[in-house]
């Protein structure tokens, strides 16, 4: 008792120092916001700190110096959904450390110093969807039941900056695959898997991963499509298979696939043709960025979406091969043209992307594209890419555009229409001239110009003393309807008067064979006066009007002696 009492002070002091150490290590992180996110990263914590928010949802403890996670460190974070513990120095985790985090969806333990995995860590994490365990120095993956807890596994390069040959995985041993009995998603993309090592990883196709639904082995060094089909044929629940960006150069005539496979991605390879190797159950097929020059004789009745961009196809695949197809992507190929006849073969097609091809811009193709963009065809296929992706590669005058003028497309029709319009306009113009007596005025103008020319010649002759003598006293201008009165009354009265007058009459004195206008002008020029018998018939006579107007013009010019009107 005496010994115990003597040691009691020292024990008490040790307890106090331990408590002070514990309080120091359990620091408080106050960097929390209204979204219940606590950013406790890069603060040199050596133990999991406490936080000022009682119902924290996201806790970031990355890039600290935490070495262990004790049983009680996370007891107060029952509302936690995301926990980030990456890039610490964690060597040990208590087996009950995560048991109260039943709502945890994302856990990141990457880049620590864990040497083994313990199934008890994850046994109560019923909501866990994302788990990152990269960058640890595992000597063992734990007991057999550890990996069987996981449904989603991603095995990729551990460092983004490291060369692929140093950081990628070559093989996942078959015994490891046997531990993944409940696995539904396996991502082995971006590694260095070959046909041989993939055969080992999938246990020679014995169906070990029987619950697998999604398998991604893209961007590896695989070369045999026949082998991959055999390795997955017994995976009875496989729905999605991504084998893109590998070295496939040919497709075998036949293949065996799971009956559940609906999504196949073989893009980014070097395939030159397709064969009946493709599974008939496919609903989505991606063959983009290969070297395909044709796609025919391979019927896929259940296919709903087909990706063929980045190949060398010159024509659309026959639509009757895909009775259920709804979406077709065929950009960046060598298509020359397509039209309504091609699209009618696709009974259910609703979306098409066919831009960035080498289109030969015929009139039919251009108008078809304009109608599609303009929505002129109801219920038709929709072009879902940009209109400026559809540019002409030929003919040369249309390079880099997709518009043709109406004259280029309908020359015969336009020429015919132009000629018809010209003829109609000419006819209307002639009718208008006739209605407005334009011909009469033109002929009158010609006569006046001719008379003016003759008048100028007459003045020059007068100045030279070579003037022609006047032969008549008067030129009588009258209508033929008034001829009886003129010939029986007017002419006898004037010619028999004292002194008698010499009259010029068109019936008697006009020169035969000469134009009547010339005769009228000559008669006026050779007469002292012009006598007009003005009547209703005179007004309606074309030649009488010519004579009257000419007389008025010459009278105004004061060249002839004058005109006399008898009404």
From TrEMBL:
<dbReference type="InterPro" id="IPR000157">
    <property type="entry name" value="TIR_dom"/>
</dbReference>
<dbReference type="Pfam" id="PF13516">
    <property type="entry name" value="LRR_6"/>
</dbReference>
<feature type="transmembrane region" description="Helical">
    <location>
        <begin position="412"/>
        <end position="434"/>
    </location>
</feature>
<keyword id="KW-0675">Receptor</keyword>
<keyword id="KW-0399">Innate immunity</keyword>
<comment type="similarity">
    <text>Belongs to the Toll-like receptor family.</text>
</comment>
<keyword id="KW-0433">Leucine-rich repeat</keyword>
<keyword id="KW-0732">Signal</keyword>
<feature type="domain" description="TIR">
    <location>
        <begin position="470"/>
        <end position="567"/>
    </location>
</feature>
<dbReference type="GO" id="GO:0002224">
    <property type="term" value="P:toll-like receptor signaling pathway"/>
</dbReference>
<dbReference type="GO" id="GO:0006954">
    <property type="term" value="P:inflammatory response"/>
</dbReference>
<keyword id="KW-0325">Glycoprotein</keyword>
<dbReference type="Pfam" id="PF13855">
    <property type="entry name" value="LRR_8"/>
</dbReference>
<keyword id="KW-0812">Transmembrane</keyword>
<protein>
    <recommendedName>
        <fullName>TIR domain-containing protein</fullName>
    </recommendedName>
</protein>
<dbReference type="GO" id="GO:0045087">
    <property type="term" value="P:innate immune response"/>
</dbReference>
<dbReference type="GO" id="GO:0038023">
    <property type="term" value="F:signaling receptor activity"/>
</dbReference>
<dbReference type="InterPro" id="IPR003591">
    <property type="entry name" value="Leu-rich_rpt_typical-subtyp"/>
</dbReference>
<dbReference type="Pfam" id="PF01582">
    <property type="entry name" value="TIR"/>
</dbReference>
<dbReference type="InterPro" id="IPR035897">
    <property type="entry name" value="Toll_tir_struct_dom_sf"/>
</dbReference>
<dbReference type="InterPro" id="IPR001611">
    <property type="entry name" value="Leu-rich_rpt"/>
</dbReference>
<dbReference type="GO" id="GO:0043235">
    <property type="term" value="C:receptor complex"/>
</dbReference>
<keyword id="KW-0472">Membrane</keyword>
<feature type="signal peptide">
    <location>
        <begin position="1"/>
        <end position="21"/>
    </location>
</feature>
<keyword id="KW-0391">Immunity</keyword>
<dbReference type="GO" id="GO:0042497">
    <property type="term" value="F:triacyl lipopeptide binding"/>
</dbReference>
<dbReference type="InterPro" id="IPR032675">
    <property type="entry name" value="LRR_dom_sf"/>
</dbReference>
<keyword id="KW-0395">Inflammatory response</keyword>
<dbReference type="GO" id="GO:0005886">
    <property type="term" value="C:plasma membrane"/>
</dbReference>
<keyword id="KW-0677">Repeat</keyword>
<keyword id="KW-1133">Transmembrane helix</keyword>
């Amino acid at each position: 008792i005496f010994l115990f009492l003597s040691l009691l002070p020292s024990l008490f002091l040790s307890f106090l120092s331990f408590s002070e150490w514990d309080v120091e290590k359990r620091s408080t992180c106050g960097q929390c916001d209204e979204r219940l996110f606590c950013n406790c990263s890069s603060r040199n914590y050596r133990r999991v700190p406490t936080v000022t928010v009682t119902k924290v949802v996201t806790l970031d403890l990355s890039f600290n110096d935490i070495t262990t996670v004790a049983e009680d460190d996370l007891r107060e974070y029952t509302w936690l959904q995301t926990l980030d513990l990456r890039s610490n120095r964690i060597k040990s985790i208590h087996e009950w450390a995560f048991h109260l985090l039943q709502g945890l969806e994302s856990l990141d333990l990457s880049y620590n110093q864990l040497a083994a995995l313990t199934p008890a860590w994850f046994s109560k994490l019923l909501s866990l969807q994302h788990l990152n365990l990269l960058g640890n120095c595992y000597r063992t993956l734990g007991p057999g039941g550890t990996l069987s807890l996981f449904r989603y596994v991603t095995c990729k390069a551990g460092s983004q900056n490291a060369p692929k040959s140093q950081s990628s995985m070559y093989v996942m041993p078959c015994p490891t695959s046997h531990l993944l009995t409940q696995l539904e998603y396996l991502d082995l993309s971006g590694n260095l898997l070959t046909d041989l090592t993939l055969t080992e990883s999938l246990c020679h196709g014995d169906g070990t991963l029987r619950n697998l639904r999604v398998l991604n082995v893209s961007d590896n060094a695989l070369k045999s499509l026949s082998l991959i089909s055999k390795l997955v044929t017994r995976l009875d629940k496989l729905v999605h298979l991504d084998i893109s960006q590998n070295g496939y150069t040919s497709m075998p005539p036949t293949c065996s696939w799971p009956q559940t496979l609906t999504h196949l991605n073989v893009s980014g390879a070097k395939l030159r043709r397709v064969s009946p190797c493709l599974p008939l159950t496919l609903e989505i097929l991606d063959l983009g960025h290969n070297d395909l020059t044709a796609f025919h004789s391979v019927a896929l009745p259940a296919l709903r979406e087909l990706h063929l961009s980045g190949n060398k196809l010159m024509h659309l695949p026959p639509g009757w091969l895909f009775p259920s197809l709804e979406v077709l992507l065929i950009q960046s190929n060598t298509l020359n043209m397509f039209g309504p006849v091609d699209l009618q073969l696709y009974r259910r097609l609703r979306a098409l992307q066919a831009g960035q091809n080498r289109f030969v811009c015929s009139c039919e193709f251009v108008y078809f594209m304009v109608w599609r963009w303009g929505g002129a065809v109801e219920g038709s296929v929709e072009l879902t890419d940009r209109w400026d992706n559809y540019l002409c590669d030929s003919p040369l005058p249309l390079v880099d555009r997709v518009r043709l003028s109406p004259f280029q497309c309908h020359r015969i029709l336009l020429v015919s229409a132009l000629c018809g319009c010209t003829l109609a306009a000419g006819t209307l113009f002639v009718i208008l001239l006739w209605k407005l007596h334009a011909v009469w005025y033109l002929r009158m103008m010609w006569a006046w110009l001719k008379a003016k020319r003759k008048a100028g010649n007459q003045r020059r002759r007068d100045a030279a003393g070579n003037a022609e003598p006047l032969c008549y006293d008067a030129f009588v201008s009258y209508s033929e309807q008034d001829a009886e009165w003129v010939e029986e009354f007017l002419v006898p009265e004037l010619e028999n008067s004292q002194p008698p007058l010499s009259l010029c009459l068109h019936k008697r004195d006009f020169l035969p064979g000469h134009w009547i206008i010339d005769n009228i002008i000559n008669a006026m020029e050779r007469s002292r006066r012009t006598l007009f018998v003005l009547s209703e018939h005179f007004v309606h006579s074309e030649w009488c009007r010519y004579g009257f107007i000419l007389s008025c013009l010459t009278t105004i010019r004061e060249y002839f002696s004058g005109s006399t009107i008898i009404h």
